[in-house]
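can u pls check wat happens w/ ANZ
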Amino acid sequence: MDPERYNFKVVEEKWQNYWLENKTFKAEIIEDKKKFYCLEMFPYPSGKIHMGHVRNYTIGDVLARYKSLQGYNVLHPMGWDSFGMPAENAARQNNLDPKNWTEKNIFTMKAQLKKLGLSIDWNREISTCSPDYYKHQQRFFLELYDKGLVYRKENYVNWDPVDETVLANEQVIDGKGWRSGAPVERKKLSQWFFNISKFSEDLLQGLDQLNEWPNKVKVMQKNWIGKSFGCEIDFKVEGNPEVKSISCFTTRPDTLFGFSFLAVSVDHPISKLYENNEEFINFKAACSKTGTTEESIAQADKIGFKTNLTAINPLDESKQVPVYFANFVLMDYGFGAVFGCPAHDQRDLDFALKYNLDVISVVKPNDKGNDFKVSKEAYTGPGVIFNSKFLDGLKVPEQSIIETIKILEERKIGKKKINFRLKDWGVSRQRYWGCPIPIAYKKNNEIIKVPLEKLPIKLPENINLNTNGNPLDHQENWRKIIIDDEECMLETDTLDTFVDSSWYFLRFCSPKNEDLGFDIDEVNYWMPVDQYIGGVEHAILHLLYSRFFTRALDYKIDKIKIKEPFKGLFTQGMVCHETYKDQNNKWLSPDEVFSENGKEFFSKKNISEKIKVGPPESMSKSKKNTIDPEQMIKDYGADAVRLFILSDSPPEKDVQWSDQGMIASYKFIQKFWILHKKIVLSSQQQQKRDRDFNESLEEFTNQTINKINVSLNKFSYNVIIANLHEIYTFFNKILEGKSFNENLISNYIKILTIMIPITPHLASECLEEITTNKDYLWPEIKDKYLQSNQCKIVIQINGKKRGLILMEKNIKESDLIEEVKKTKELQRFIEEKIIIKTIFIKDKLINLILK
Ligand code: ANZ
């Protein structure tokens, strides 16, 4: 090989084969070794890997390799989230079989992932569409059914009347079906549910222990679980002897004197009284036109249907108000009924203004007098109660809510109550390409579990997908199953794919076990996942469902030692690229355009056509602003791609793709190779050998290892790339010296070892040339070389000393601010606040002024 040229194609392939053949990353239980379970969210096999995958899996790989070099027993598996709509749609459009389509994609994507040089234990590969996987899921379904955590109930769904199919909330766009464009309706369907709400409190409490999760994700989970403190109030009702009272849940009992109407959901039990009333029937149909999402309900025009009933204010029985059916009241929250207080709730105010109802202000801001009145904007802030007889003067909210509840309880009109927003998880999908639900129906429609020995219930293959509704409904033969000598019919709903991903991290612990979904000893050794890495788009549902599943599987059996599946969570940012449009506003991909100055862009097809350049946006096929990772690996090598994807911004932030950046990374690898060749050559020239011991070399190496340790532990991977450039410069300088230092090679080996996580192929190749030892271990640091380079910096927040952090000398102000934000003990002082000013004294102090 030409010593000057680094042939990455040869080197990378060599090492990838070596790692595979030697089963280098094969994980097994080793009792006396500390374990580390590193997991990236597994991909959907859509056809090709994209840059988001490259970033996600490179970040994970850096960590897995680092931990492994540190002597941890590392589990780093990979699999495929392979059920789901895209396969079904692609198959429908192209008359293919979803299974073949999926398997072909997995084959391609696996080859692409291998080319990235990931330290994955491919022996543990799983695919959720394989019966080897979903048979266990069917078993879990039945176990949860026995535990009372699975049930069937009628529920409203988003219904696409043209496609005759149920739509997930995300598939409803502006109230219309994403494929048919038809206005979505509400329809009642019998569906399967997981009883996640049983764990609401526990899921909420559990968040407190997750110290290694980003705060923003915990806040999102907390809001989703949505614990509300308030009370339930019984309102006496007049107008029909069949209705004595209606209960409402409220978080604002203190506004009862502002009560001017009572509204119930169209599905409230009292709707029975109106089921033959034509006007009501029309009203209900109008309400059905709004989908079932909270968002669509919130955005829809508020409409009401006035009943002949009146409700009595329990704190002032002389006051009676009308009872309405209203489209903004949800049946599955609280009691499906609301007491309306227009002055202090915008929704109620919109409704009251429309139907000419009273607006009585009962809370006034602290600086306002008794003439305070709400007109177009509800007042929801703090203040004092007024216009409310014996409640007058109570401070809102700290006294008013508790005091009112006390009074209501004493008078036996109401009770303190905690409500959760979290609803049970509807897992039924009327789709073909998903895990069949192991349930059948007897002739009399009674539910019967499929016996364990008949599992798995496999999907029928090669069927016609071009039917309306669920293709499985048309599979009469497949549906027939004999249970207890009776012919029964299989359920045709399949499970939401979120079920598949709610336990895959457990399966990875014993992926080949045929009898059990997971082996309990393996799970108790490997779990929890020490570091989970993925996109913030999964911050709510996937993580919540996984947290639920881990609890649900263990519920009343107590065999899994942990409750929380993911100890550490890291959410990486997006990979972005500018967008291009031609003069007809058609998206163009980066390789359809060219630019000579990096500012003006032209079409390659028609070189005089100027292209409109849009700002960087997250790469997406629909906007064609994607870069193909496979092509990049082919052109520049996996190490260069890894280096680039980590280099430009911290992993939690978005990174912008740049061709120049990619080329610079490629050149760096080349330059490093030349440096390496010089070092090897120099070490071989005997006359130069064994001169003095170089203290500065020792100091540089130790300080570099230390810096990289610190950065690795904080995911500051972009800083490490800068360190690699320092390494290059430093070693080149050393080589300029006339003599060969006694400690050059030993330090160089250390440096190469710490490069393994970032550029594993290059580092392994260089190491192989200078040492026969292949059991690399993360180098120890000699403390005496560190002191000179560190300083303690005082951290002040709004002028108050809040901490002291040990940093590298000469740290830049912006880097220091990032450090402060990442320091756990300081985060609580900063939280969501904005830094409006900083005072920075280099190596000594920083004062952050926050708003
Ligand atoms: C009276 C009231 C007065 C309310 C006021 C608010 C402000 P969170 O915090 O989300 O729990 N509510 C109760 N059940 C409902 C349902 N099924 N559909 C729609 N809205 C419902 O919200 C609790 C508040 O949401 C409750 O407090 C109730 O309106 C409304 F000045 O009661 B409130």
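The longest strand covers residues 227-238.
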